[in-house]
Structure formats: C-alpha cells, structure tokens
Amino acid sequence: MDDFKSVRLFSRTCLQCGKPSKYCCPKCSARSCSLPCVKQHKKIGECDGVRDKTAYIPLDGFTDLDLLSDYRFLEESARIIDSACRTKPALGVYPQQKTLPGFLHKFQAECRRRGIMLKLLPRCFTKRQENKSWYNFRERCIYWHVAWVFPAANIKVHESQRVHEKESLAKCLEKHLTLETCRPELRGPLQPYIAAGMQGISILLAVEGKPGADKCYYNLDLSVSLEACLKGKVVVEYPTFTVVLTEDLSHFNLISPEPSGSHGGTNLPAFFNTDGLAGCDNE
Gene3D superfamilies per the record (predicted)? Predict the structure, then answer.
C-alpha cells in the first residue's frame, strides 16, 4: 500500500459513495462515511486499515508520540527476529539445504538470460505465496504474475491469469480500463482512469532497494512487451506496476532506465540472497 501514499486524497467526501465522510483510514487516508463503505474500501483496496508504523515522517513533523512509536516498533522487531531465529525451518529457510528447487532455479536462470534480475523471497512472505509466475519448458517462455496499483483509487489489482512475457503493457492493462471488460466491482473506483483512457495514463515501475523516502520509479513505454520493460531491472517475485494519471505524474520521483544488462546497483536486504531460499514451493 506504500504506492497509495504518493498521491494524497484531500477530499472530504466518501471515496465509495461520494457522501460527506466521517472516518479516515489510518493506513491509506481514504475517506469513508459508514461501516459498509469502510468494509467495501478494505475489500476493494486490499487495505487492512492498520497504521503503517514505518511511514516516512518529515523531521519538522516528528513528535514525542512518533518517537515512542518508533521505540516500541524496534522492540517488537527484536522480538520477532528472535522468534524467527528459533523457528527457521518452519519459515522455509533451511541452513542445511542451500540450493533452490529445480523449477525455481530454472525460472531465475531464464530471467537472468533475459537481463532481468529476479529476487525470490522465503515462502513465509506474502509476496512469495501470491506469486504464480513460472517458466513454461515446452514453449520456452515466461508467464508472469502481474499486479497493478491504482493510487488515485486506492486499489491493487492482481491479474487473474498469468501474462505472457511478449504481451504489451497496453494490451494487458486495457481490459481494466474498458467498461465492457472491467470487473463490475472496479468500475466505480477506476472511473477516473477509464475516463482518462490509455492516452491519459502512465505506467511506472518502482526501483527496488530504495528507502521509502527516496522511492523512485521508471516511466515505462506502454507499447513495449513485458519482457522488454523488465530488462535491466530488479524484480522481487513478480512485477507490480503503478498506473498514474498524467496530471498526478509530478507526485512521483522518476528516473531514467538503466542501460541494458545493468541493474542499477540497488542495495537489497540480505534475505534476497537466493542461497537461503531452499524449500520455496511453486505457487
């Protein structure tokens, strides 16, 4: 949900029905007027309503309550780390087995051959469990699990079917921005995007390994294939694209794509090292 915070919604009306709002979501600041609208927001936006304890706060807005919250967060983190060390095998990280399963090793190797630096997580991570991407040995191609984030609507949409690597971004996204093919429950929240059309949007891809305060994005070409737009970039499990209205593009820190074969030297956490990911199963 971090991508939703790039565009703040200052409206005092309910995001779901348009009536005057009474409540504000602690996590994404979405406005709601009643319990049914709150539940609908959580369902459509995949938002749990829990305040993000790691959200960036400017120094001039930092208070004693924020300091206390950070202190408690560090204490909780230390407890969780200690608990994880005691239950490593249950988390899918086995020190005695330091090789990936064959199908994951092949999938990662094929991504590397295409110039894509694929990073896999331990199977306890939600993103690992969501990932349905796989390499088709018969067709010798990759089918990607793809997710779309719509900041102006506070929605994250996962593709119901895997996307062929040769399919263009525009073709893949078009079904979500057309009234005839858009899922009924998404037509209302996605109305600004549907009205803008493919000409009024941009597709961004977050640069992995950047701190939250320094988060930046690649501005992608809608006409290129999925394989082409991921080449030279780091992908954690599966690509998550941010769909932005043209007028909101200034809210995002954009950078130029790295040269082919370069992965930008992103500084990823140690657990992205695939040596410790044995036991990951195909989803």
Answer: 3.30.60.190
Instruction: Spell out the CATH class of 102-257.
Output: alpha beta
The b/e string for 26-58 (b: 16+ C-beta within 10 A; e otherwise) is: ebbebbbbeeebbebbbebbebebeeeeeeeee
Q: What count of Cα atoms within 13 Å lies in the side-chain half-sphere of residue 35?
A: 0
Contacts of 4 (CB under 8 A, 6+ apart): 28, 45, 149, 151, 154
Q: What is the pLDDT of residue 239?
A: 92
Residue with tokens 């996204």: 173
pLDDT tens-place string over residues 219-256:
898 889 989 999 989 999 999 999 998 888 888 888 86
CB 190: neighbour CB atoms within 10 A? 23
Q: What is the pTM of this model?
A: 0.58
> In the chain, where are the structural domains located?
12-52, 58-96, 102-257
Tell me the C-alpha distance between 245 and 196, whole Å.
7
